[in-house]
Amino acid sequence: MLHPYSKITLKTFTMNTQWKLNAWLLPALILLFSACKKETRSKNESTRVTGAPACVACLQGPAGTPVVLENRKTGKKTPVVEYNGEYYLQGDIVLSKEQIAFLKGETEENARTGVSSFARMWPNRTVFYAIHPNLPLADRFDVEDAISHWQQQTNLQFVVRTSQPDYVEFVPSTVCAATYGKIGGRQEIKLAPGCDVTSVIHEIGHAIGFFHEQSRKDRWMSIAIHPQNMQSGAAPNFWTWEEIGVPGFQIGTFDFASVMLYESFAFSANGQPTITRLDGSTFGRNNWLSVGDIDTYNHMYNRPYFVMAKTNEQVINNGTEIGSTWQCDLWAYTDASMTQLANLPWTLELLVSVTWEDDDAPGGNASPQKWLLSPGTNHIALGEGYSIRNRRTGAQRKLDFDIYNNGLWSY
């Protein structure tokens, strides 16, 4: 297992100046050219991402119909755009049917964990992918370079799809967009003309579960949003994930270098900034994954291993009750064998299920609660659990803790 916090570091990424005949590219070349010969990419093609100029196609969003998804349970309203039978969130996130149902409050909560997953990660850090035969050759180069960048910076692996049922397909489109997380079956990363390497890196981020950086719920400490400068209907593109009503997380502080961050003039209607630093200064588009992006990846895909330990068990055996109490603690390790305690550089937010039952009281409760693991620590004292039965009536009362899906999303 790759150690999650020492071996994943930001590396220098240089574009390839020579055409690489990868396995996925060769069949397309045979179809495109009558003679197989080595081609050299132009200097402009190989270096065009340098400086990361504004991607107009990336900031337009689909020209569809505004729709509001209202959660029947909470009443929360989430504005999206319907375009060609699909629903787009924040301009470039294509929602699955299950995610739409989640936002509308039509999903049943998982009886075991008490929560429903909005997005899922890719098992074994492996993304199977295909490239649509109609994708232009220049866009294929961008896909290849974006994949190389993700693989150089992280331990995420992209494998050309053969018969795997769950995979991403890079397809030509009129928008730059992607599905959010692993949704199962075929899912798309859409590339419009003008979606460059940086755009593909960004959309791959969505496909593996990244949200927009400006959607952090603590952003008010770092940026100012200027709705008066936005295009009509663009304001929801700047909502926090909490305002939208989706489960989310954030680590560290606001990352101005994140490839998932909109530039200052994104969706501007009048040439004035829609996002600025608190001092009013503007910022541009970021080229590559930042150190913070890689930390986010590690948080999701190289998480510590957690074990729930019961200590200091006290037996209860008297004339009235029988059972036991115990102290419940959560420990974080870097390895599956649970031999090396973790030492995290940031605060880790965990979901821990707290189950309470009492036969003498109506109902019961099983709900997820958020716990924070502070930087430099590897232990949380969750509290006292118990399981006690009344000798006379047989009534039981219980309180216990558990952690599912390693405290985050499920596979």
TrEMBL record:
Cofactor(s) essential for the protein: Zn(2+)
Listed SMART domains: ZnMc (SM00235)
Biological processes per GO annotation: proteolysis
Pfam family, one: Astacin
One of the record's GO molecular function terms: metalloendopeptidase activity
Superkingdom of origin organism: Bacteria
Residues of the active site: 203
Keyword tags: Hydrolase, Metal-binding, Metalloprotease, Protease, Zinc
Record: residues binding Zn(2+): 202, 206, 212
Listed InterPro entries: Astacin-like_dom, MetalloPept_cat_dom_sf, Peptidase_M12A, Peptidase_Metallo
UniProt cofactor note: Binds 1 zinc ion per subunit.
Residue stretches making up the Peptidase M12A domain: 110-304
Name under which the protein is recorded: Peptidase M12A domain-containing protein
Source organism per UniProt: Chitinophaga lutea
